Amino acid sequence: MYDYFIEILDNFISEAQSIAWGLPLLILLIGGGLYMLIRIKFLPFRYLGHAIAVLRGKYDNENDKGEITHFQALTTALSATVGMGNIAGVAVAIAIGGPGGVFWMWVSAVIGMSTKFFTASLAVMFRGKDSNGDLQGGPMYFIMEGLGKNWKFLAVIFSVAGLVGALPVFNVNQLTQAVNDLVLKPAGMYTGFNSNLTIGIILGLITAIVILGGLSRISNTASKLVPGMVLLYFGMVVIILAVNFEVLPKYLSLIFTDAFTANFYKGDAFLGGVVGGLLLLGIRRGAFSNEAGIGTAPMAHGAAKTNEPIREGLVAMLGPAIDTLVICTLTALAILVTGVWETSSANGVSLTASAFTQTMPQIGKYLLLLCIAVFSISSLFSYSYYGTKCMSFLIGAKRATYYNYIYILSIILGATTDLNMMINLIDTFFAVMAVPTMTATILLAPKVIREAKRYFATLKKG
Question: Which residues are CB-contacts of 115 (< 8 A; sequence separation ≥ 6)?
Fold first, then answer.
């Protein structure tokens, strides 16, 4: 009877997850982002140079409100988004949708940049105070401050969903599998549960040391780890592209032409392209690549030390560009030019590992594992912060740290258990977070547009 009940529950949650990440969410995220992009007439995209100047600290002011620098806010947000979705999710997209999936990935990134601009601007524009009286940013606060108390139900929905959505079970589970498949099993060192438990305890200890130190330690750690790993990953892919340089123009051309053909791979190419562009399959296996519109990143950007909301919006825009246009594209090109997408039956992280191993037989998979490990571990830091902020909004800042202990225990659970039901549950709640975030952002978009016009007009005057 118990097994029958669990099976029914598992099927129900699996169906809920499939529905949550289906067409309605696609329309809300991509349609909403496109609507805001058109409304603002691509205005922020003309100031990418200015965004880089803000990121470098040219406009930093110690007297501004906030806790962390623009650079720390961006790297904290990136540490959550740069992960298995960039490495495993892209591979899944190509395996199903072919090279054309990369084109739709780029389209989603451009729209995601627009969404990030609006949500991060709102996170600074409508910062609220927690029960301790400290200034906080994020969807729950810009809903309350921007739309009013009548909309509190949306803020509560977001925060409750965030408590579950921020749990790291999925990411830890994927990282544990990568360590086992790429290192322990080939070396004959895999011992089943004991290996998984050891990995879980190590990840839990590393995470505990960082997250119990608060946002300052999280942002400092992320600002050191993320740039270095992005550069290492970039360097490795450059080597792969250099070795296969003669076929690079062919696949760059194929990315565009294949996006609109009716060829078949393991599914319809156009459908696969859309799925690949949005990384919907990659999300189910890893993470939504740039998380634009979900509402996580605004919680990090809302803590930036600035009195100009548009500045943080511009910095946040760089996130999808780095995450999707750079890192996901690097992964895609490595898989395409090596030909493993046509010759290998592997999928996910194994397909990406095949591309690296083919070009660098001795060290390729180990360097890739290092990047995967750092990307995944750094994401554990940021998600704990997001969950703590949701807890703080719901039950008060003084009790928010209790979430960290639940979070650390879930790391060990994720490493040692095949939790398909739990993973599907977390994915579902992660998708639910997008509904209040995007609803509030679309309603408040006119205020961001007015503020942007004021800021850019002032900037032109010097």
Answer: 29, 32, 33, 36, 292, 293, 438, 441
Helix (H, G, I), strand (E, B) or coil at 339: coil
Q: What is the pLDDT of residues 107-146, one digit of tens each?
A: 788 888 899 999 999 999 999 988 888 888 999 999 999 9
Burial 444-458 (b: 16+ CB within 10 A, else e): bbebbbebbeebbee
Q: What pTM value is reported for the model?
A: 0.87
pLDDT tens digits, 279-329: 444 333 334 566 778 898 899 898 888 899 999 999 999 988 888 888 888
Burial class (CB in 10 A: 0-12, 13-18, 19+), 43: middle
Q: Which of 163, 143, 138 is nearest to 153 (CA)?
A: 143
Tell me the residue ranges of DSSP E strands in 69-176: 128-129, 135-136
Question: CA-to-CA distance for 389 and 65, rounded, in angstroms?
Answer: 18
DSSP string, 5-32: HHHHHHHHHHHHHHHHTSHHHHIIIIIH
Query: HEC profile for 395-427?
Result: HCHHHCCHHHHHHHHHHHHHHHCCCHHHHHHHH
